[in-house]
Amino acid sequence: GFKMGIVGLPNVGKSTLFNALTKTAAAQAANFPFCTIEPNVGDVAVPDARLDTLAEIAGSKQIIPTRMTFVDIAGLVKGASKGEGLGNQFLANIRECDAIAHVLRCFEDDDITHVEGRVDPVADAQVIETELMLADLESIEKRRANLVRKLKGNDKEAQQQDRLLAAAQEVLENGQPARTVEVSGEDMKQWKMLQLLTQKPILYVCNVEESSASDGNSKSAEVAKMAEEQGAGTVVISAKIEEEISQLDAEEAEMFLGEMGLEEAGLDRLIRAGYELLKLETYFTVGPKEARAWTIKAGTSAPQAAGVIHGDFEKGFIRAETIAYVDYVEFKGEGGAKEAGKMRAEGKAYIVKDGDVMHFLFNN
Ligand code: GDP
């Protein structure tokens, strides 16, 4: 599954948000109750109304949403990369994530201490980014030193690694994150394996006061501008509202959202922004037993998509019977879609589209 690490300065609302996201009725939907893997790891259901529609049409007994993992990564403060250095566990936590959700305090509240003594989310973002850049520089120096012997031995892979590490080092020394390095297609695989902290895509989560939850405030607007310049994502959330929603059942939550002038809960917006940032899509498998959603990267081929379900599906892939979501709904299910000529037989080269209803045929 895909993993989103929640980082931010102390007292910006990370834990409040994390607890709310992982406790909401939506997050706990269906047969997988929210499971705490560790106190700070939450595995949540990805809300998707299409899945309910499909299940209703097919009369599926079970609805199984796809999942996304959130990790509450506390411990980032100014100077964290100096002295003892960032803890190994802490770094490993970030490394394992596919993206970083960076929570920024955009609310004023004199009762809640700000570690820097002022509310300035853009400056806060830079404080954290700087720590991550320093940690990357330290790790690059160590890794390049370790490569020296292999480089003397003319090891091709070591040469490639060193060249990419050097490129990252150069931008970092100029105060830019590693994600600004332009990497060619041939280098991409090795580049991703470097697992630098500032390579990860960033989603800025603006934690605003309750009254600004629907439109944001001047601080979140500054963040949005910065995010756009960086090619990062932004989402406006009120952790306080999310905390309240997490206490309600689905129906009550919807009413409450309406009262607040919000169309969807923060969890939905956060996950959707995460999907966009990571270029993720969803496909479905639907039958009388279960209707299930699966997460893939955009551009995934049919066999790779089948591999998300089971490795054998990918290895023995023959073809996929495919119905677009809209056709499945319009023609009221597989039978109707088939009659209308909307069920396609797709081969190995087919690129799965968001919302496809798939049935894989494979050899084992
Ligand atoms: P963390 O250190 O980033 O995990 O921050 P917490 O989630 O523990 O929040 C720190 C304090 O700020 C707590 O007392 C929260 O109740 C409060 N807080 C969090 N979000 C908001 C918010 O949106 N508005 C206000 N006024 N207080 C908040």
From TrEMBL:
Cofactors named for this entry: Mg(2+)
Matching CDD domains: TGS_YchF_OLA1 (cd04867), YchF (cd01900)
Domain OBG-type G per the UniProt entry, residue ranges: 2-257
InterPro entries the record matches: ATPase_YchF/OLA1 (IPR004396), Beta-grasp_dom_sf (IPR012675), G_OBG (IPR031167), GTP-bd (IPR006073), P-loop_NTPase (IPR027417), TGS (IPR004095), TGS-like (IPR012676), TGS-like_dom_sf (IPR023192)
Stored Gene3D superfamilies: 3.10.20.30, P-loop containing nucleotide triphosphate hydrolases (3.40.50.300), TGS-like domain (1.10.150.300)
ATP-binding is among the record's keywords: yes
Pfam family, any one: MMR_HSR1
Coiled coil: none
Example GO molecular function: GTP binding
NCBIfam families: redox-regulated ATPase YchF
PANTHER family per the UniProt record, alphabetical: OBG GTPASE FAMILY, OBG-TYPE G DOMAIN-CONTAINING PROTEIN
UniProt record similarity statement: Belongs to the TRAFAC class OBG-HflX-like GTPase superfamily. OBG GTPase family. YchF/OLA1 subfamily.
Function statement: ATPase that binds to both the 70S ribosome and the 50S ribosomal subunit in a nucleotide-independent manner.
Annotated protein name in UniProt: Ribosome-binding ATPase YchF
Organism for this UniProt entry: Marivivens niveibacter
Lineage, opening ranks: Bacteria, Pseudomonadati, Pseudomonadota, Alphaproteobacteria, Rhodobacterales
Gene that this sequence comes from: ychF
